[in-house]
Amino acid sequence: MSKVLSLADAIHEYITPHCSVFIGAAHEALIPFAAVYEIIRQGTQHLTFCAPISDIASDLLVGAGLVDCIHAAWSGNVSGGLGHNLRRAAEHGVPHAVEMVDYSNYAMALALQAAAMGVPFLPTRSLNGSDLIRSRAGFEPFMWHGQPLVAVPALQPDVVILGVQKADADGNATIDGPVGMTHESLMAARHVVVLCEELVAKGHLGQESWHLTVPGFLVDAVVAVPYAFHPSPCLGYYGRDTAFFQQYHRESRDPQEFRQWLQDWVYVDGHADYLRRLGKDRLTHVKSEEGVMSWP
Amino acid sequence: MALKEPNPVQMMVIEAARHIRDGEIANVGMRLPLLAFALAKMTHAPHALGFFDAGIVRSLPVQKAFVTMCDAENVRGSVWCTDMMDLMNLMQRGKVDVGVLGGAEVDGFGNLNTSYIGPADAPRVKLPGSGGACDIAMLSRRTVIMMAHDKRRLVSRVQYITSLGYGHDGRERERLHIGGGPEVLVTDRATFTFHNDEHRAALHSIHPGFTLSEVTDRTGWEIIPHGAVPLQTKLPSDTEWSALGRLDPDGFWTGGG
Fold first, then answer.
1. Measured between CB atoms, does A239 come within 8 Å of chain B?
2. Which domain holds residue B84?
3. Closest by CA position to B37, among listed B100, B91, B130
4. For A84-134, how does the pLDDT look when each residue is reduced to its tens digit (9 = 90+)?
5. pTM of the model as a whole
6. How many CA atoms lie within 13 A of B208 on its CB side?
7. Which CATH number do you get for residue B151?
8. Residues A84 and A25 in one domain
9. CB-CB neighbors (< 8 A) of A180 in chain B
């Protein structure tokens, strides 16, 4: 049976109030912004948001007032620096206070890997001597035969939304380019939603099963929309829309302006309307950007 | 070509790049550290190998500027794209020679803060956090720190240690039985080293165009000289200039252009 759902149906079914969702596994690439926008349109509240970096995704969800708790190694705006909504939440409790659970990149991957292995923690030599050791993540220094180590508690997200270039209706999927902690998050999460740029015919990917990044049998739902990751890059399809991130940085500085930004770009008539608002010229431009590789 | 005066940010990038040696494995953060690594590759360290947290290993120098490590320009010509975990595991096993880090605040023991200004539970400024920086500081064999030279950034004591230098008394690495730590702090005005017994930042050289008092006035800790008199940082060579020109043609990163 096909696992393909519409963007709205998949988010409605799998992203529910009080759930924990992991996104941005491939760091600055393949960030599932189409799903982030849809979560905001549906207004699903009390989320625990887990992401190593995820560029402006955390800032957007916090600004929209949907997040109670963030598990992150880095949260801000990669081209702009600090995230204005994150600052308002952490410094002034606006729109409401958010619990920050701080990780390093390695700690987050180890936390996922522990969940993937079904064990309560994994040890590392990192974190010691850093104030991250006091993070709400619950890192625990311990001695192992005279060696100081730190226990990183397991992190099991309810849902991971994985960004990929190609998937089929069974959920088999491949990624071109760097994958960050895609594998660990796939193996750790209770449910897996694949967001793909291109839906390919069944059997096409499965024939070379050894090349799969994601095996279909672990996947709950597949969503296919064009420019699923804009403004982040999708290797082989389009480059990073840095101007868009910079514009967001300027227009999220003031809470009033941020609400207008949401009106203009998110509270629109679905993803197709978002693309219409971006316009043909802009989309052609990110596709034709010199830095974009044409991938076989 | 006559040697022209670099602007302070250009000088910082060029000077930091000099501390990445040929044949080394370097773990590179974002922004200016990323640019410094690319510059080292294009000049004196063609055999250096770059690890990028997202899971990229690069040997070829990049040909033009890029904004994030995941941009196509940094992926094109990479020698391996893999899980981040593989690169972190190798670093934990001591395979990474040097890490290049930036931050919001640094203190005289090379501790970096990129997390919170003020108390973590009620911060005056919430900064983005560690990313891979905490891991790079702990697990690479040494680090090179880059920072804009400002009294608000070069502080006597960071309020939050995101990435460990030598701790609040210079002894934390000894207590933890680990080596490594900052080798140099390169700002846009000067270069500091940490070679002394206390692992305190010592002023090694002043960048062209700045005086000792212009460095002292902007530093939040007492200046200790590395030698009898601070040296002048070497001006950029022709090779360094042309490489930087190719990497940042519009001055997006260094304000040069």
1. yes
2. 8-247
3. B100
4. 999 999 999 999 999 999 999 999 999 999 999 999 999 999 999 999 999
5. 0.95
6. 12
7. 3.40.1080.10
8. yes
9. 53-55, 83-84
